Structure formats: C-alpha cells, structure tokens
Amino acid sequence: MIQLPIGYDNFRKIVENKLDFVDKSLFIKEIIDNKATEVTVITRPRRFGKTLNLSMLHHYLAKETYGESTEGLFDGLKIMRTGEQYLQHYRKYPVIFITFKDVKDHDYETTYAALGKLMSHVYSQHHYLLSSEKLMPYQKENFESILREKVTKASIQSSLFDLTNLLYLHHGVKPWLLIDEYDSPIQSSYVHGYYEQMISLMRNLFGSALKTNPYLYKAVITGILRVAKESLFSGLNNLEVYSLLRSEYSQYFGFTEEEMDALLVKSELNKQSVEIKSWYNGYQIGDSVVYNPWSVANCIKRKGELIPYWVNTSDNQLVRNLIVRSSMVFKDQFELLLKDKSVECPIDENTVFGDLEKNESAVWSLLLMAGYLKVTSQYRTEQGLQCTLAIPNQEVRSLYRQIVEQWLSSGHGIDWYNRFLDHLLTGNLERFEYAMKEIMEQTVSSHDVAHQPEAFYHGLMLGLTASLHTNPNYEIKSNRESGYGRYDYMIFSHDPNKPTILLEFKRADAIQDPQALEINLIKTAKEAIEQINQLGYVAEAKQRGCTNILKIGLAFCGKRFKIEHEYL
Fold it and tell me: How much is the pLDDT for 313?
C-alpha cells in the first residue's frame, strides 16, 4: 500500500522512513537557475508543501543538518541527474533555516517571547561557532546571549544579519537564508490586534538580514500571503515575489495532473478518479492546475474517503471575520460563488492588512492568495489586475459551509445548527427565534453588528442557508425584483410539504428603555410584513405555483431582534 507522508515537514525523515513521495527536487534546479534574484519570495496556500520544499533545499545545500550528514539523501532523485553545474552546489553551503509557523499568539508580549525562543533554537543549530577561532570574544558573547534568550529588541532585530556574518567569517562561504511561513506572525497579529507592533519588529528583522547584506549568498522565503513590500520589505530592491498568479515554480507546490494520475494508479483508486478530482482539483497556479497535496495524501490514506481534510478552524478565523463583517455587495457576490458561478474583481497581489476593512478588493485578494478561491481568467487594465474568481472545488465549498456553520453553532455543535435550520425550513418559528436568540447572545460579537448591521443580518441568512445551495429541494434568491419592489431573501421550496419562505429585514430605531425598544421592534417587524404585502413581493413565488408561502418580518437593533410572520 502506498504511504505518502502526512504532516512531515522534514525531508530527511521522509527519505529515511522510505515513504512514498512525489519527486519535486527539480525545484532546487530552478532556484539555482534564478541567478538574477537574490531574495526569492514564494507565496502558496497553507499545506501545499512549502515547508517540505524548503527542508529539501536545506538538505541539498548543507553538508549537515541538525548534526547529521546529508550525504546520500538525494540518491536516485531528479536533481542528481541535472549535471555538474548543479552538483557543484550540493552540500557546499552554511544554511540558516527558520520557520515562523509557531510565532503567533493572542498578544504581542507572548509572541515576542516565542520569537526570542525561536532565534535561540536557530542559533543552537550553529553552536560550533562558539569554538571558532575566527570569531571575536564579543561576537561569541552576543551569540551566547541569543542562545540563553537574554535578548533585547535590538538584538532580536539584528539576529539574522548577525548570524549570516558569523557563518561567513567561520566558513569563508556566504550562507543561504531559508525562511518559512514568514507571514504567520503578521497574520496572527492582525487577527488579535497588535499588528503595528509586530509589523515594525518583523520589518526590522527582515530588513537587516535581506537588505544589501554583504554576507548573504541567497535567500528563499515562503508564506501564504504576499505582504505589501511597503509595509514589510521596505527598501528591498533585490526581492522578487512569485505569487500563485505567476508561472514560475508553479508545478512544485501541489500535485500536477500527471502526478495525480500516477498516485491514483499506485494507490488503486483510479476508478474513483472523477470524484476525487472534483473534490481536490482546481487550484490554478500560473500555467499549472494542481491538486491540494494535503487533502490528496489524506484521501489516499483513507482509501478514497471524500471529506474536507484541508480544515484548521484557527487558521480560518480571519476568513470568518472577513465574510461576517463584509458589505451587502460582497455578500451578494459571495452568494454567487456558492451557486457555482464566478465573480469578477480587482486583485492586488500585495496584502496590506490595514486595507482589509476599508477595501473589499483586498479581501478578495486575500481569499485568492490563501487558496479559498481560484482564478479562471485575468487581464490588466489601467486600474490594475482584474480576475474572474470561482470556488476551486467541492472541498473548499464545504469549508465555507463549515466556517459559517461553526460560527453560528459555536459552543453547540453542528447537530444543533442543523436543527436550527430545520426550525426555519419547517416554519417552527418559535423554536427558530429561541435558537437565534442564543446565537445573538452567545456567539455574535458586537463588532459583527456594529458595522453595516443590514449586511450582517443578510450575511446571517447567507450563513443559515449556505448548505441549501446544493440541495435539490431548495433554491435561494436574494435582492430580487418581485411585484413592485425588491425582496430581501427568498427560500423557494420544491417540496410542497414545506413552505417557501420570504424574509424582509428592517432596522429599528435605537431606544434606551428596554420595554420601549421591545415594542418598537415588534412594530417594525409588523411593518416588514406590511411591506411584503403592499409591494407584492410574493408575486414571483405565485408565478412559480407556490401556494404554501411563509412571510417573515425580522426587525433588529444591534443584537436585539423580533420576528413576526404570517402565511399566505
């Protein structure tokens, strides 16, 4: 039985454990060939093999890694058949390998401490420098202070630059610098509210190591997002970014069609090829269409079980926030995506986290770069890059559902969410209202409803009905003309035993007195029902032959709401 590595990010372990793996070693050749670029930044979605590829590069370039020889690790791989011009780089360099994947927490102080611990670990890989005759005593003292985690902000910020200097002095050869998940601390700091402090620290750390560093041979950096040069890599003119919109390195992150076919044959799953491909295919990286390697490996391990493996709820927190707090326009476009349609949006490859709440093109860009969307076509205008976006595959579609369902059912579980939805679909509004009150009190943040509350409630319904878009018994419409106006939300039922549901949302004026607010909410909810009747919103449903129609008026003020209803 084929055994693909799952969760392995160390190249040596894969080779020594004799695991099956797709040979991506020609990635090393392309990195070496790229002589014009001193600092290479490659951005790809999470779990697409970034760490493993950097680990492979590390083991190829270094004579030893973590105290063990790298000799023989590449025997039989493609890179060893590329000729002397590439073999001359084999095991010839000192290498600094650092991953920032665990430098993230809920506050700056804890994250700063994690960064100090990480630099101590990186320095410990080169502890032999303490006995080097080529280093001055003060340099060894500074080295020891990092090892002992006795760091200042200044010593942290210069730590990578200093280490390249010491390695060059000792070896007489300029080192490579390999940085994995460079954007992880930045994304976490944005989610948890200490972005400015973190971006300043990381800017100085990277700037000192990468900007005209005379001791550095070459740097390769990977991450999920292309963080704007102006905010992180300011002044670095020797840097080139290869996002998933570029063709360079496109076949080395994820499985290509040819590689996928070979894996399915080897794992005896080729009879399930169509279903497996529909679940995990569809990522467009430059000129290549690739499969999610994490999901494919897990699917093969479970003998073809089709479930969403590419799920990590903590990593989805930012996506959840962006979807929940977005505008009506964004939610309307997002709903089109859930219906298997595409949307055209401006895309900026540079992510400026500060723009996410001000500019929704930045949100689309982030969703694209993080692997939650794919590009089906692109063209450039005077205003910038325009892309046609779509959901890449069945797995990501289910992931969107999970994000919304987990948000709505936080603390209750998915079974509770399904019952909640069933209360609405069967017209059990007493239970529906009770459950919705639980959501508003226990799950929804005041931030969610503070900005564009109408958009929040529209998004609430989008979340509630996300699972219905692929259900043959239902059809979802929103903001559609019917009668003499536009209704807010319609759930058409193709089951005559269940009602077609028409929802109208109205915002009630804020009143300090709770009893007066309650009365006003009821009054406003009734006005929503009157609006449905007066403007003939049920016209479309009647034209379709629907006779079982439930009209719902929902009035809201912040987290407070009231529901009124009547049947046609």
Answer: 45
Q: Tell me what the mean pLDDT of segment 64-92 comes to.
A: 96
Can you read off the two tokens belonging to residue 467? 């699972």
Question: 356 CB contacts (<8 Å, ≥6 apart)?
Answer: 190, 322, 362, 363, 366
The per-residue pLDDT of the chain, averaged, comes to: 88
Asked whether 253 and 259 are in contact (CB, 8 A), the reply is no
> φ, ψ for residue 152 (rounded to 5)?
-110, 170
Helices 453-464 & 317-324, crossing angle to 10 degrees? 120
Q: Residue 508 carries which DSSP code? A: P
| Structure confidence by residue, pLDDT tens digits, 290-339 | 999 999 999 999 999 998 888 654 566 677 777 767 777 787 788 788 77
What integer pLDDT is reported at residue 312 of this predicted model? Answer: 58
Each domain of the chain, given as residue ranges in start order, spans 11-250, 255-301, 317-395, 409-567
Tell me if the pTM is above 0.85: no
Q: First vs last Cα of the chain: how many Å apart?
A: 60
What span, in angstroms and rounded, lies between the C-alpha atoms of 65 and 72? 13
- Backbone Cα Rg of the chain: 27
State the CATH class of domain 11-250. Answer: alpha beta
Residue 530: band (very low, low, confident or very high) from pLDDT cuts 50, 70, 90: very high
Contact 317, 403 (CB under 8 A): no
Kindly state the tokens that stand for 502.
């028409």
Beta bridge partners of 68: 65
Residue 42 parent element (H or E) = strand 39-43
Residues 448 and 442: beta-carbon distance below 8 Å:
no
* Calpha distance 555→522 (Å, rounded): 7
Q: Which helix (H) or strand (E) holds 431?
A: helix 429-442
Mean pLDDT for 78-83 is 96
Q: Is the pLDDT of residue 450 over 60?
A: no
List the 176-180 sheet strands across, edge first: 95-99, 176-180, 218-223, 39-43, 239-242
CA distance 139 to 137: 5
